[in-house]
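Re: the 133-residue chain
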Amino acid sequence: METLRKAGLRITPQRRAVWSAFEAAGNEHLTADEVFGRARDELPELSRATVYNTLAALVDRGLLRMIESRGAVLYDPNPDPTHHHFRCRRCDRLYDVHVEGVEGLKISGKQDFVVERKSVLLGGLCPECLPAK
């Protein structure tokens, strides 16, 4: 719970239950529904709205990252900006990967954009889904 405190969040039973869902999951990427189900095991009176509000606060404080997925948003408990993602088109598994060259990416043109973060989602076939050689 020290992580929440360091991020400037007040420790409540609801936030503790939501954060515990990620601690128990390791580096697994979870949907809001998965977080809700796991957090309710710890705190049965937890509401879905509270889970969504807590997830938003955790994203806002940089403790979670949102990843667009097929039909759902996944929450990634690894806020390290140097890791990115690869999604297998066959098994739909999401992998954490490190991509070279991301630091050098920039927007071309005459507009003045301030890039605050870079997120890469690669797609293709994972090693397990590749056809046998």
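The chain has a mean pLDDT of 90.
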